[in-house]
């Protein structure tokens, strides 16, 4: 079995190669290590190999790890899971990024609860790109209103869009989903130049990061390829 350090090396090389092949600037794609279900020691090992950004889906589990790893200077926490409105206060104080904002109520609460003494919270809007009934995320049609409203909130910085396309669709459709998210971001940037940097596309995971990078991903969220297969959820 390969070590976490080896895996970070090979995923980093995959990212570099895909970035080069896409004709994109070296360093323009960031690796988010998705560490849900993993014990703090695994994150410590990744940190020791240079990894700084970690993505967590479940708040309680995340808070325990954040506390256990408080000695790691420069570690950066990203929240990427579904958000219940009674959990926003803890999310607003413990994380640097939230990739999974999908409604205005949540954005407003995060803004109100973010300590203004901290840097603004970086936000991505999660889009239900394939309009799957079971998935979280807003519809593309809702984005203009959301972007306009969130752009006004002082303690949030609107960075861009996130999606988790249906991984079981044919490769061509998956690529089209990534492209659709990229084109949607471009349009929003044109229509709402003052809403925020809108410089971020959070898309691509262990199995499809090359395709996502070819279509413009700036953060790839990678779990399995770094930490191995997750235990089945009970
Ligand atoms: C679990 C998860 C990932 C990582 O998926 P892998 O296939 O293990 O790389 C990425 N994004 C989100 C939102 C996730 O929940």
TrEMBL record:
Leader peptide range in chain numbering? none
**Requisite cofactors:** pyridoxal 5'-phosphate
Keyword hit for Transmembrane? no
Q: Which residues carry this modification: N6-(pyridoxal phosphate)lysine?
A: 36
The segment(s) forming the Alanine racemase N-terminal domain are 28-231
Q: Which InterPro entries match?
A: Ala_racemase_N, PLP-binding_barrel, PyrdxlP_homeostasis
- Entry GO MF terms: pyridoxal phosphate binding
Q: Which SUPFAM superfamilies match?
A: PLP-binding barrel (SSF51419)
PROSITE patterns given in the database record: UPF0001
Q: Which domain of life is it from?
A: Bacteria
Any idea which UniProt keywords this protein has? Pyridoxal phosphate
What family does the entry list?
Answer: Belongs to the pyridoxal phosphate-binding protein YggS/PROSC family.
Provide the function of this protein: Pyridoxal 5'-phosphate (PLP)-binding protein, which is involved in PLP homeostasis.
Report the NCBIfam families cross-referenced here: YggS family pyridoxal phosphate-dependent enzyme (TIGR00044)
What's this protein's name? Pyridoxal phosphate homeostasis protein
